Amino acid sequence: MAKNLVIVESPAKAKTIEKFLGKEFKVASSFGHIADLPSKELGVDVQGDFSPKYRVSKDKKALVNDLKSMAGKAQMVWLASDEDREGEAIAWHLSESLELPENKTKRIVFHEITKSAILKAIDNPRGIDYNLVNAQQARRVLDRLVGYELSPVLWKKVKGGLSAGRVQSVAVRLIVDREREIEAFDPVASYRVDAEFITGD
To answer: Where are the beta strands (DSSP E) in 30-179?
Structure first.
């Protein structure tokens, strides 16, 4: 087993990155998110601090076990998910689910799949950005609270199969308000006069 394990989101990137890094590095993929809120319950502690109750997705359990095994054999694990709130959450979920010790875990980011960019990232590791992790959690919790609570109301009051969401519900409201303004508009006739004046000297 290689001394270093790099975990990226996309399997398409893994082989290319592994070529750049050489034999000391094994590159594996998380195939995107490995954990989410449970599908059959709210999954948010609304009676407490609104913390999300993440679980490893059923279809990712075998993958997580494989990654955990590889991580246990590596001297250093490099979390190389994307540099956005979703990527940061993936890095955090990997750290938690694989039970990675802090002293053998590094977070790296790069913006292009080139040898120079990858090596620069390896030379400049950082920790997990918990501000981004918290931002992702807030978005996910809001999505769940709005969708999970409002969608059943739509099914009962309007039509089955409809959904409500954090963004789409607000967008629909804006569209409806604008349409009502258009319908309520009372056109007013206006006139313009063009005139030519002859003045005597």
So the answer is: 35-36, 55-56, 76-79, 105-107
Task: Please return the burial class of 195, using the count of CB atoms within 10 Å of its CB with bins 0-12, 13-18 and 19+.
Answer: exposed
Domains of the chain, each with CATH number or no CATH: 4-133 (3.40.50.140), 147-184 (no CATH)
Distance, first Cα to last Cα, the chain? 105
Task: Return all residues near 201 (Cβ < 8 A) that are at least 6 apart.
Answer: none
Half-sphere exposure of 107 (CA within 13 A, CB side): 19
What's the rounded Cα separation, in Å, for the pair 14 and 67?
14
Q: What share of the chain is helix, strand, coil (3-state, %, to 5)?
A: 50, 10, 40
Q: What is the DSSP letter of 3?
A: S
Q: 70-93, pLDDT tens digit by residue?
A: 999 999 999 999 999 999 999 999
pTM value is: 0.80
Distances in Å between the Cα of 146 and the Cα atoms of 52, 87, 108 are 14, 23, 34
